[in-house]
Amino acid sequence: MKLGRESEYAIEGLLVLATKPPGTMMLLRDIADARKVPQTFLAKIFQKLTRGGVVVSSRGAIRGYALARPPRGIKVKDIFLAVEGPDLFDRCIFWSDRCAEDDPCPMHFRWKAIKQNIIAELMERTTLADLAKGSRHKR
After folding, report:
1. Which of 99, 110, 137 has the alpha carbon at shortest distance from 2?
2. CA gap 111, 89 in Å, rounded
């Protein structure tokens, strides 16, 4: 399980929305500018987040994106699954190009237990609100 740049930018963009009052719509351009991420790349990511139910989009008189739920109701696991795909917790961190359930690497079953018992649990109980609290200290 390796996270890509898409996940990093998803978190960055969502942190911008998490600091706004509930229901605040923001243009993608403003979200990208706030965190210095490429707008065109962020657009593709936010499409995935919309399909995953993390954000909602509006194309009417008030355009943009808003969080689909309050930050405390958005689990990090939901974000990463929306961006990385449903096989996120099946991927091997060691040899992802050659490891699978039907052809496991030597570390496969040990890593699988760690993913299920520690990593998935951490992502399940960590929310966007938790990340936003930590982010305020760094930015």
Report:
1. 99
2. 10
This prediction's pTM: 0.84
CB 71 within 8 A of CB 11: no
Which of these CATH numbers, 1.10.10.10, 3.30.160.100, 3.30.450.20, 3.40.30.10, describes 5-138? Answer: 1.10.10.10
Q: What is d(CA 65, CA 50) in angstroms, rounded to the nearest whole number?
A: 9
Q: Which two tokens mark 45?
A: 């990511």
Per-residue pLDDT tens for 20-36?
Answer: 998 899 999 999 999 99
**Residues with Cβ < 8 Å from 71, sequence gap 6 or more?**
18, 127, 128, 129, 132
